[in-house]
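ugh ok fine here u go
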Amino acid sequence: MESAPPQPQRTRRLLFWLAGVFTGLVLLLLALAVLLWVLLRGFAADLNPVINPLLERFVGPGSRIDIGYFNRDTFFIDELVLQPDADTDIRARQLALTYDLSRLLGGDIDSLSAEHLSLRLSAGSEAAGGTSTAASTATDTAATTAISLPQLTGLMTLPIRTISLPRIQIDTPDVQATLSADLNTTLWWLRGDADIPEVDGTVQLDARLQRTPATASEPERADLLLMMSQQQTLLAQLWAGLIQTADDTRADIRLQTDLPLLQQRLPMLRDLPVSGAGLTLSGQLSSPNDAHWPQQLTGQISARLKTSRSQVADGVSLQPLTTGLQVQHDTDDSDWQIALMPGEVTLTLQQPDMPTETLKITPQALSAHCRPGFSACELTSVLQGVMTAADYRAGFALQPEVLWQTSDMSRATLPLSATLDIAATETLPALHITAAGQLTAGLTPEGLWTLSANDGLTLQANGVTLTTGDAGARKDWAVSPLAATALRGLTLSGDLNNPAGFSSSAWEVALAPVRISSGKELIRLGKTSVACTPAALTSTLFVDDLLENCALDTRLLPSDWDIWPVPDVQLSGPFSLSYTDSHQALSSALNLTAASQQVKLRARLQHDLLSGNGSLQWHLQDAALDWNVLGMPQMANLTMTQLLNGQLSGQGWVDWQATEAGFDITPDVMLRADKVGLIYNNLMTLDEGNVLLALRRPQGKDYLLDAQVSAGKLDNGITLSNILARSQTRIPADFSYVDAEIYEMHTDVLGGRVYTPLIRYDSRKEVNAFGIRLDHIQLSQLAELEAQAGVQADGLLDGMLPVVLTKEGPSIPGGTLFARDPGGVIRYKGDTADALSKSNQGTGLAMQLLSDFRYQILESGVQYRPDGQLNLALKFEGHNPDFFDGQKTLLNVNLEYNLLDLLESLRLSNDVIQKIEDKYR
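structure:
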């Protein structure tokens, strides 16, 4: 089924149809009058049965005529009904044709009148006529260049001197009207009421065409007046003064409107955000009567549109505006001159609790030059605007240039420049930003189009100084000038005949290198770019297609943070952003390299923007733990640590789900360091160190961190070997506490072993406790820790040390050490012992006893405080063969010293350091 034609086509078709029917009706009546007068005078009533079958056959079923009477000066028809089809009904009642017999044969009729004339068209006739009307319209459009203007004398000369139709009833699906018409050779007048689509309420129409015949001194002229009113108020009025000679026609035109009232009554104008204040049009047009338009149409037309203050959006108002339009064509071979002269556009933006913003656009005249036949037009203009507020000022300038052609590609260029000045605030400095670029477009007569950004849009910002920290610790950061390019290389192309799809070239957004410095801190950012190579694009999924195949490349160049070096970092790889109503997701496959490309991590990321869930898979390849290899040799001195060997690696999977409180994260990751060898400040060495960490969250509940630490040897003056510790730490989802279990920890030390049966730690408790077990500690190796003291001893020590953890730190409230049977020997000799023996008599006796003491029992109470203070309550039971004839002796000794100071005083021998260096050299 074809849809009904557009309203302008329907109205035009209705008018042509009425004119054709009316003319045919007049000719029919004239022919009947002549025939009846000559042949059948006096037999009018008997003609109805003869004529009605002919009407039904040649006009349509239901057509009929009821002739009332006929005499020498009047032909009267009671009713005439014409029904050419089932959807068309034309009726005329009390139709009278008057004439003078002496002039009738010459085609001169005095008058025609009808008490009532009606036309009814149903929806079916409109639909049926749609195809033919469209075809007719297309034909008219194709032939619009050849124009033949009718002569006013011929147009208004009718075979009937006067026509009077006091009531014309028109009823169609779109128009209902009650009109009256009076026509004669000098005045055509049509007026009445009508209900017109897109107009609220009934309007009054008044159309007049009055002819003034030519005189000896003046050519023939006519005045056309069209008026539309409503409720005694004139809405619009068009006047045209027509002056015509045998060869030419000239028209003076004036249009006046009550635009505010029109905007109230017309729904199509009522919804516009701008309130009209007035619209006027005036000008003069001239043309030969037989011409080719638009080449031979000359003249000048001026129009002016005024708007009042308008609320175009919430909080946005447009100030009164006046815009002018002028069209001029002087001669047949000259160009059309078109000038659009908009006034200053002022927009005021006012939002609650926000400063008032004002946008002013001060355009120059938009001018166009078109060929006489409109085969080509050139358009140029300059558009400048400024937007101001309390804290910023933004300006822009556009200089469009357009070349439109019907036979070749039309082209347009749009140079763009913009500035933004932001005033300084308490926390931010003044900022000056500029932007510049150019867009070009092309369109062929076949509908192929292109849009290019060429070198893209360039953005530049001045260097600034940013201040961070509070009043007591302010820090100034100097940021170098910024430079960026956007949409470099972008070219879109498509076909207007297939608007759903088009293509795009590769395009890029890039940020030039940036330096950020403050004192000794220097951050150097390398070039950052996003480059995309879209596949075929669709108008409905433009953003989705444009970001479907992109790549990111960003770099941090070697930098400094105070005394610490920051290694180079590069993050690069493809990503895709899908953004449709039903699917919004980000996916990427990124590679991160750092530290002279020694650290290499690859990652795969997926995130659904609608549901908020996503995942990350990552893998860290073996990275060498060597400052020189990592490109940071100064770290050895800064950390006092020499990295001699080792690799760092890891991998894992992380899932997340967005919630009202943030993100719910579920990790399953592992990080390990293997075969680590290092020297710390020549005070400690680590050999064959290994660390394994695994973090997971079973069933989305608590986090579990499993850890294993092992080492072949750790030496800080006391050699620890075969080190192993295993633990599991439970952390709830809200990270409110830590619950750890070290279920295995041991090391070999001083010829024996130290281990813990089980350690439990709960951060919610104020006190946590566990025990440390010592087995087979050799006194000989313990004595060697202080070789210069002159103590020699042998025997084996066992013991248990209870450790208590509080907020103040670790402590040992009461531990015990004891020697294994059968005991051992302690010999305390040397300068230190000699000095102590001379200090007092009691100490002298003790030193004499310990010079060769054979003990059977050796016990020690151990107490340790969080401040490092260690107390040893030693108890010896044994004898010295040279002391009181070897008599059994009991000796109690209390020793107090700071364990932390003792550990700090321990030193590695050079040969220990040399051995580990030689191993990894």
